[in-house]
Design goal:
CATH class: Alpha Beta
Radius of gyration: 16 Å
Helix content: 25-40%
Number of domains: 1
Strand order of the largest sheet: 3-4-5-6
Distance between the termini: 37 Å
Strand content: 25-35%
Number of helices: 4
CATH architecture: 3-Layer(aba) Sandwich
Largest sheet: 4 strands, parallel
Amino acid sequence: MFYKRRDHTRIVNGKNPIVQHEYIGGSLEGKRVLIIDDMIASGESVIDIINELSKKKVSDIYVIATFAFFTEGAEKFDKLYEEGKLKKLYSTNLSYIPDEIKNRPWFVETDLSKFIAKIVNTL
């Protein structure tokens, strides 16, 4: 688990900046890791965590996010994939994802239409 520490004394671009992501746990060397996040906006937090995990010599890193907005583009994720740091990133179709992102080798879209339809049908 990672602990996200923010600087609550200032606001940058509408939010308190992240000072540090600190890993709380045992050795991860050689292990496959799954990062679960509710949302990828700029991707800054996930990217920081991927880089920290890479230093711990994990074998593979997978990311799951409910919403993937990529507000600052996906180029940083391309680089992580090319460097072998990111294996796959899974996200839902609950928000708009451009085809240019869907077609990247590291991205997998998970279709939740059936589940949303079931929820609407029960209302």
